[in-house]
Amino acid sequence: MSIILMLLFFSLVTVNISFNEGCIESERQALFMFKQDLINHTNRLASWTLDEDCCDWVGVVCDNVTGHVLQLHLRNPLSSPADLYASDADHEAFERSKLRGKINPSLLELKHLSYLDLSNNAFEGIPIPKFLGSVESLRYLNLSRAGFKGLVPHQLGNLSSLQILDLHADHDHLSVANLQWLSGLSSLEHLDLCNVILTEVSNWLKVLNTLPSLQKLYMSGCQLPQVSPPTNLNLSSLAILDLSFNSLENTWVDWIFQIKSLVSLDLSCNSFRGCIFDGLKNMTSLTHLDLSFNTFNSSIPDWLYNLNSLQFLSLIGNNLQGLISSAVGNMSSAVSLDFSRNELEGKIPRSMGNLCNLKSIDYSDLNNNNLTGRIPNSMGILQSLQLLHLNGNHLSGEIPLSLKNCTYLMLLDFDDNEFHGHIPKWLGHDVPKLEVLILRSNKFSGYIPDQLCGLDSLQVLDLAYNNLFGSLPRCLSNFSAMVKTSGTTETYASLAASMWSGRFFENTILSRTFVASIMMKGQMLEYSTTLDLVRSIDFSNNNLSGEIPVEVTNLLGLRSLNLSHNLLTGTIPKNIGLMGTLESVDFSLNKLSGPIPESMSTLTFLNHLNLSYNNLIGQIPSSTQLQSLEPSNFVGNQLCGLPLPNKCFANGTIQTTRNRRGENDKGFVTDWFRFGMAYGFVIGFWSVFLPLVIDRRRWRSLYALFTFQKNLGNR
């Protein structure tokens, strides 16, 4: 018995020693040489020193028994600031954290390396190293968005064990002359060639047909030539297919409908037209379908609503016409529906209430949806609903009481409709998770209910262009999310993670669903992925009166405050300078009086300020921000000092040159001059803009078309 115990002891000691061998010295030297050729502005690789075990280095994973290096995780640790309106600081931090330099062939010493991720770095135009094709142990290779340029080396075809290959390019920096090398990757399950130019590759589909294990294929923006499909299609394992942004046409797609295993299909941003493909009706395994931004111009066929497995359907930006059939209620698995930017008309079907799994509905429109009537009460049955976009239609009536049952609502956007009545008080307590509430450009009347202050998660509140009256609520400081100077923990990003899995839908349906158009800096801006960073209040163009409550200065995280075109009186709160994150303030066309508070000069992020046409007096405070603004932002007051041409006396009053003929004559001439200028402005303004106001749909359509074409050109 003692002999057995002794043997057991020695075996445990041997195992313990083997688990603590550390990394192989030759591999540590190879990694250190690799580091020497990298430029690392943020010192990400500070732990990579020769006096440390390389298995403890950041990004290095070793075998616990042998000590061999198995994995290198060197992707950029920061996520790309995808939103156009992300801060300069976010963009700068992302760029600085990128690795630069070149790839040292010392990686060939890592004979057991199975995982290499260099994505989201900046190798600044160097080609993908050919020697990577000799690291035969690789099973995972991710070089996406890493700044590589030139031809993809055919030597990668030697990686016969490779299961995942991601070459997603920056714009069109990578290309392939011949794709035949792919047929050597017999184990490949995941292939991403997005933005890799394949214009000259006439056999791309034939080559892909030699990969029987392929499950996920991403070929967005590859400029694919339309080729004849192989006679015997051998893609029976394919589950996800992304062919977006390729200018594909109807005559070519029939082969896709033979792949019955597909669960996700993205054909967005192509040149498809006419009727939605009949071939889709037999693809009963589909859970995700994106046909957005084509030119389909038929009605939505009823059979599409009978694809019972469909969870996410996006038809954005087509010319689809007709009614939304009551058959939409058959989509029992639906989680997200997006029919925005079409020419649909009629009422929202009551059968929508059958979709008990629905979390997101988007009937919004930046050009031509024409839905009418009331929101059906059955919508209140959708207790899982989190996002409801109905903006840009002709919907009317009051907000239905039944929506109080949608207690998970996070975004409610009814912009640009014909809703009327009072803003419901129940919004403030029955929909507690609301983060974005947009009711602008409707016919709501009455007071702003104090109950809205119960929405402590609210980040965006837009009630502009209605018929609201009364004073501003003094409880505005109860908006806890606007008091904070950083993002909330429960944001759109976390919601996205729970609703979508996989990169495919992050780039397509997801990017459209989490969108809100918000008035910022004097213009309407569209926010998506950084919407959780926006804090905005817009009460402009109503009939609100009384003073600006001092409590508003407690909203330390607010980025935009627009109270223009109302009847507000009193002074600007003197502590407005405490609102250090303010970027945009508009108090124009009110009846505010008194001086501009000195504290406003401390708002270092302020880049849009409009105080014109009030009764403000005195000297404009001195600051880099205020003096750099246009004089038009201060006109219509009794102000002096830069950027206005009026100089100030020592006591802060305006210096003017008196007319010899006396004050009476000057006043007479000045009044008539102002009258003439005002009359000319009114006539000129409405002669240009009245037709656009009358034909608002055409104006919005042109704007949406311009925005889409610009985004397409920036790909």
UniProtKB/TrEMBL annotation:
GO terms for cellular component: plasma membrane. Residues 25-63 form the Leucine-rich repeat-containing N-terminal plant-type domain. The chain crosses the membrane at residues 672-694. Keywords: Cell membrane, Glycoprotein, Leucine-rich repeat, Membrane, Receptor, Repeat, Signal, Transmembrane, Transmembrane helix. It holds the Pfam family LRRNT_2. The keyword Cell membrane applies. The keyword Zinc-finger does not apply. It is a single-pass type I membrane protein. Residues 1-18 form the signal peptide. It is found in: Cell membrane. Belongs to the RLP family. This is Disease resistance family protein / LRR family protein, putative.
